[in-house]
Structures are given as structure tokens and as C-alpha cells.
Amino acid sequence: MELDLLFKIAGVGILISVIHMALKQAGKEDMAHLCTLAAFALVLLWIVQLLGRLFRTVQDVFRLS
Amino acid sequence: MDMVQVIGIGITAVLLILVVRRSHPELAVQITIVVAGIVFFLVLDKLRMIIELFTEMAKRAGIGEMYLIILLKIIGISYLVEFGAQVCRDAGEGAIASKIELAGKVMILVMAVPIIAFALDTILRLMP
Fold first, then answer.
1. Tens of pLDDT along B37-62?
2. pTM recorded for the entire structure
3. What residue spans define the domains of chain A?
4. DSSP letter string, chain B
5. Which residues of chain A make contact with B37, given a CB cutoff of 8 A?
6. How large is the ipTM?
7. Residue-level pLDDT at B114
């Protein structure tokens, strides 16, 4: 099902580590940290959507509320 | 949805985490959350069928619908608490995990009060 989400996150992680290293070589340390933060926020967005759907299904299955 | 798929997802996730953890530990935690969610989704589909079977059997056996619903809620809460507490403990935050478990226990206790009350009433009624 959401297997591609798993690989998207891993891809973002690897990409960001490469960008981080490249920017560090270029001397733009702060830009590198900003890129890491942006990647973190993007992945968080995907995860929140998945968790939202998951918790709605759990509430529906267990008639929680 | 068979077991092999779950094991495959778990192992690939572990390998991805090992790759990502060196440079970005916070992404590793996010991968754990995603995998936990995906497996939970797969399990919930099967669970829905089992629960419908139980409710149908309970209806035929004449057990009060309310008690089965309370039982289902308690199972649901324990599922969610285990999900959240395990992810927090995996990320290294034992304190937050125990707080989540405490809240879960309180919620379950609150839900179990009507059943306890009913049990006491029946016992008292049976007393001579």
C-alpha cells in the first residue's frame, strides 16, 4: 500500500545527506542546516497524513468515538 | 495480506534505517513510525472481519451490545497506546512512553467502570 512512502522517506534522507555534505564543502553551513530542516518538515507532513488516516481507521474499526 | 509481506517490509525498513541513521537520526525515527503505521493498516483490515464476526455472534448469544462495544473500545485503546508507547521508547524517550501508557491505563479504567458496577449489582442481587 503505502510502501512507496517508505522509500520516498529513505530517498529524501539520502539526498539530504548528500546535499548537506556538498553545501558544507561549498562553505554554506547554514544553508545545509536549512535544507535538513526542510526535508524533516516535508517527511513530517507525509507522516502526519498517514497517521491521520490510520487513527481515523482505528476509531472506525473499534468504534472509539 | 500474508506474513511474508510484513516481514519483508520490516526488514527493508531496518536496512533503510541503518543507511539513514548515520547522517540523520531523526529521519530514522520517522521511518519507524511509517512502518508501524503501514503494518497497523494491514492488520486492521483483518481485524475488522474478526470484530464483525464477534458482534454478530454476541447478538445471536443475546449478550448486551453495550458490553461488547466497551470491550472493543478497551482493545482499541490498548492497541493505540502500545503503538505510541513503543515508537516513543524506540526513539529513546522512555519517560514519554510511560506517560502514554499511564494515560491509556486511566482511559481503560474509566471505560471499565460501568462493567464493574454491573458486576457488583448482579453479585449483590444474588446474595441471599
1. 999 888 888 889 999 998 899 888 88
2. 0.83
3. 3-62
4. --HHHHHHHHHHHHHHHHHHHHH-HHHHHHHHHHHHHHHHHHHHHHHHHHHHHHHHHHHHHT--HHHHHHHHHHHHHHHHHHHHHHHHHHTT-HHHHHHHHHHHHHHHHHHHHHHHHHHHHHHHHH--
5. 2, 47, 50-51, 54
6. 0.85
7. 86
